[in-house]
Amino acid sequence: MKAAYLLIIALACVSASCARSEKSLTVKTGTLEKKIPLSELKQKFAPENITVDDYYLKRSVVYRALPLAKMLAAFAVDFPAYDEFIFRCADGYLAHVSRADFEAGRLADFYLAFGENSDAFSAKIPQGKALVSPEPFYAVSTNLAGFQTLSWPYEVVAIELVNFREMFPAIYFAGMEKQPGVAMGFDLFRKECLKCHSLNLQGGDIGPELNVPQNITEYRDAATLRRFIRNASAFRARSKMPSYEHLSDKQIENILSYLRAMAGHKAH
Description:
Pfam families: Cytochrome_CBB3. GO terms for molecular function: electron transfer activity; heme binding; metal ion binding. It is a single chain. By secondary structure, the protein is α+β, with helices and mostly antiparallel strands. 30% of the residues lie in helices and 25% in strands. The chain has 8 helices and 13 strands. Strands 1, 2, 3, 4, 5, 6, 7, 10 and 11 form a 9-stranded mixed beta sheet that branches. The protein has a two-stranded antiparallel sheet with strand order 8-9. 29% of the residues are buried.
């Protein structure tokens, strides 16, 4: 009887401990990595109540949030050699934004949300066939046009300051810059596709690998790929892949040129 009572007490303590657990953000600057609890983030970067027209929920939402540009500026002090911010998400998504865009003020309207009316989220975001929580952090903007700079990543678990070419060397190949269509395709792939897809196993994990063991252009014809890139949902109901109606035919062709070129540069 006594043993059972002690077990109940122990389980209650564990439950209370879990209830008190606090979300944290991992910050990587070069070779340094640290987990910063929300309480410390709130102390350093005064939280605000912000109202946004949520890109995914398609309605107005009030979030508790921290000023993102102020946070990134503070993190950058520890690694001045960076040229890219990576927002690593729990589902394998890798949002990223360049130092040039940051220094040009294109993140001025962005915030790192941590909840609605509290330190937690209640809303669920549609993702393919599922509804997912944006926990633990969600990058939002008071200006919807900012989506083209940073694609409102949710489930953010880490922010990393990196040298992009050093982090993703296998997506480059020597002489790429001498082929204009390929070079332009690389720039588009880096901006639009690497968030979800990997090449030579470097990049996002939410979508399929596109180069090894077979390059996607080796088993999908160009006409199908052009239509699929334009609107994947025309092929697959509730596809996780967004439409790319904003890309021109020439831009899509440049992406395919880059992918075809990468077929000759597979990492083994």
